[in-house]
């Protein structure tokens, strides 16, 4: 029996492996593809980080390049992670998919593995699930009712404008991926229609520094989830949209509209070539800008309280207002030939047979530890802090998970030594 099985060889799972290896704990990392493959396989060509490079910290390794306040491209992230993997030798079994995890009758867990040579089983005392927060891409139920001549892809499949057929493109969703993909298509000269969701936005730079550097100095990335005003609803909101492209800048949907992008409210329904939208555009834009300005105000308060030398304060003023919100779109009439769905992902833990999930299928955990003995999670958004699920918080989260596991074995050794 293996002491610990880590399921998933992304940066989160490998970080736990790094700590377990240093502690001399027998373990294996089970990966359905290859280590950290998602960075190369699931990001578009012009992808960049939205967090500054100095946020990139993993166990025993951190960004030490020439541009700590810049934003690595997809290929640079892949190269940086390859450099980290060269610093240690995690016991990874590649092309090994875990299709079932269930508690064993005598304690621990039984895992069913699908490999190139068939199925096999593996027993372990601890299981760390590191498969990512929400692996299943979401598309709306009515997507199948749309005209089959319309090309439909999810944001995780998007690579560049040239992969889509000629014609206009509808991007649905304005979280980080949707907003950046809309910009990517816009810069490529494509006619873009954008269904705007309720995501907030943030200034890229404010008063001489990156906003995320200010927020880090203010301790927001270290504050535990339970300490946030508004509770669970507050921390489950969509992340703020911004970009690191070309050295970093704001994403201003109103400016896109000035430049010819067509904006709509929330997409409610559709059939054949007709789509219907809720009249929520004005409210969504106003909300995003209000959050933008409120973050600037919080930074102002921090600067006033600490006396940090900084540039003058400012506020965003809208450059465009929707006059008459369009609530329908005829795809054929507008020459829209493709849709990019950027409305998120949902969890899929059906392969885990354990009472560790809430009614929405999300893990019930405290800093990754569940009430099921030996079962833990890593790499979830807001698992402990805002930094969880990001490069900035992975090291701390992995250290906590690994320390909990190591302490379990240390306690066992102490009890054994005491004759208990």
TrEMBL record:
The organism's place on the tree of life at top rank: Bacteria
Where along the sequence do coiled-coil regions lie? none
Recorded hits in Pfam families, A to Z, give: Pyr_redox_3 (PF13738)
Q: Name one GO molecular function term.
A: monooxygenase activity
Alphabetically ordered keywords of this record: Oxidoreductase
PANTHER family xref list: FLAVIN-BINDING MONOOXYGENASE-LIKE PROTEIN (AFU_ORTHOLOGUE AFUA_4G09220) (PTHR43539), FLAVIN-CONTAINING MONOOXYGENASE (PTHR43539:SF78)
Name this protein carries in UniProt = Putative flavoprotein involved in K+ transport
The record lists the organism as Mycolicibacterium rutilum (Mycobacterium rutilum)
